[in-house]
Please model this.
Amino acid sequence: MHSSRRRFIRNTLFVSGVVLIPMQACRRIFKITDPPEYFLFNTSDRKLLEAVFSHLFPDDGNGPGLDQIRPVDYLEWVLNDPKLERRSSELLKKGTGWLRQVAKDKYNAEFIRLGTEAREEVLRELEAQKKGKRWLSKLMTYLMEALLGSPAYAINCNQAGWKWLNHSAGYPQASLTVKYGTYGYGL
Amino acid sequence: MATDYDVCIIGSGAGAGPVAYTLSQKGYKVLVLEKGSWFNEGDFTKDEIAVCRRSTYTPSLQDEPQVIESRNQKGNWEAVSNSRSGPDFWNGCMVGGSSNLMSGFFHRLKPIDFRLASEFGQYEGDTSTDWPITYDDLEPYYTLVESLVGISGRVVKHAFLEPRSTPDYPFPPLTEHPFAEKFDRAATALGYTPLPLARAILSVPHNQRNACSYSAYCGSYGCTTGAKGSSRAALLNAAIQTGNCDIRSHSLVYQLVTGRKGRVTHVRYFDARGKRRNVDARIFVVACQAIETSRLLLLSANSAFPNGLANRSGQVGKNLLFSGGGLGSGVFRSGDYPADEFSAMNDYHLFVNRALQDWYVIDTEKTGRIKGGTIDFLQAHANPIRRAVQVKNQEEKLLWGSGLKQALVEEFRERVRLNFEVFCDWHPNPDCFISLSSRVKDLFGLPVAQIRTGYHPADLLPGEFLAEKGKELLRQMGAQEVSASINGSPSPNLVAGGCRFGKDPETSVLDSECRAHEVENLFISDGSFMPTGGSVTPTWTVYANAFRVADSIARQL
Ligand SMILES: Cc1cc2nc3c(=O)[nH]c(=O)nc-3n(C[C@H](O)[C@H](O)[C@H](O)COP(=O)(O)OP(=O)(O)OC[C@H]3O[C@@H](n4cnc5c(N)ncnc54)[C@H](O)[C@@H]3O)c2cc1C
Ligand code: SF4
Model:
């Protein structure tokens, strides 16, 4: 456990040399040069999650786009947290499988191939299952964190979420060196 | 016999700071052992993810869980480790404890709070007792807290105003939110007395501490100006400056060891590297906050005290208290106000700081004469993630898609919420106590605290009465969607009792000086001593009593 904790801290610390919140570029929290074990989603999971998020938070001209919120990258960071409870991490990982199953049972197709209405039906059907609702609710909670959390986590890029909702953030904000995982109890 | 220190204090929060401050000022050598880290003003950020949505200032529940006992649907008690689910009762583990994170809504108890049982009688299944001291014994210390911790406000005469030895607070009120004026008008129209709410926040600079910067992220967050009256900013920094007080952070005490005479000789603790260490002193003071204080005494069982230190009476952990009452809120919509007025209302930086105490005692035909309480009015904390998560949780279905986005825009730009919190007594009862878990251990191999959280049904009546008054006030102010919820849920951040003080060693753990009846050099100076908690937030009283305990320790040294 301790080595993974160190790995998590190292990664949260050394994303870049600068200390300020990155306002300009919206970079991924894990870089392509990082060890492969950080990247928990394969291409197909990533595409599926992107499709789910674009249904939950569609690009309808109101508010920031998913490229600024970056919920899939954020989810990967969440899953890399060694303090994440096992139940949550299992739930997050299993959900994609349940979704694939419902899409297959209902339409005999992959979720990403479905149109908007069919996606809505599949997600609502998944929501009707207790475990499916727990998964979707968790996904949406992390989506809200990525929309309105500090850009130091490579989310809410350029404070797009805060600006959209006229929210004035507190000061000082998290920085790349002072944020969750870099300080706190036991560290 | 020479000891390392005159006094060793375990914990560093509101119960500890006054003891460290007073005794180090008097020239005694004091050591404070604190399990958490040591942060200063420059270390705090307003990062909702780290502060409110993860365990950053508190232990991870995987490493240091607690077991919560609540009633299941059949009415039986069910014990579940909070590493699996349930509320987190850790509040802030760092130098200064959770006082770093409090909102600082401060009230004194009133004389009647010291004699709840004799004034109002005991209900069946209610174990409340009168305090062994009176309000007058504590008044000088309440006043001391106003100047040393730093309380700002304005005294207004009213039927239940507690007697004061000074006319007003030493610091002027903080700058007020436009809601305050609306509140005053509404309360006056209803015939109630609008009360300015005192805060443990400096409105002007004082003693190397800056004034409040109105950061909008106050409760749950560390203060970056030093204005908040945390034990660290207000007292421990000054204690260190005497040269007589050492603070060791990352020092988790797991046992108080007694010698042949039944006195505590030394404590055992884990240091930052997890190494076991000892330290001795002449007097030991425990202030780990109610739950962990009782747990430490129970963990310190030995052959002389087989049921736990100072626990021959079986009272350690019993009569645990939370804050009775609940919450309410109302909504103000943008369309109902001119744009600039609404924009000022939709600002989180200033403080509403209002309260009602017209019903500290309720006497109506329906209720009879019962103890009432306090209603504090405040804006919800700024935390945008929490607000957005509430928006997506609809009653039946999750809200998503364009509907969610529109609802978020409305919530943040077109609606402002004004909340109230009701405080009334939590009657101590046999179903609210701490024990050691027989199954769950923490990462150090120590049994964790098991917390049974039962409330007394009589607590609901005053809560519901006060909630109706709170709702009436909000409606008078023009609020819509007014609602309230009063229930018997425990308040994890407002906790006291467990080692109550009293005259009778059979029914209390501490004597009236907060010294253990059974162990002459052991004191408890956090809120554990309280036999009843009053109908207000507790921390002013915790601070005041800890100053009183410090004077008593000085007399013994
Ligand atoms: C978000 C929040 C808002 C609040 N708002 C208000 C408010 O508006 N008004 C009000 O009156 N009160 C408020 N409170 C409550 C207030 O903070 C507490 O009542 C007060 O801090 C209690 O003081 P204490 O000394 O008992 O505990 P704490 O201040 O929590 O200090 C206890 C310390 O003991 C340490 N400790 C525990 N076990 C051990 C061990 N075994 N070894 C070494 N150290 C140990 C802990 O790490 C901690 O630092 C609030 C609390 C929170 C969390
Ligand atoms: S500056 Fe003021 S508002 Fe901000 S945390 Fe400190 S006391 Fe609270």
Q: What stands out?
A: Chain A has eight helices and no strands. Residues 1-32 of chain A form one domain. Residues B 201, 212-215, 218, 221, 223, 225, 227-228 surround iron/sulfur cluster (ligand 2) (CB under 6 Å).
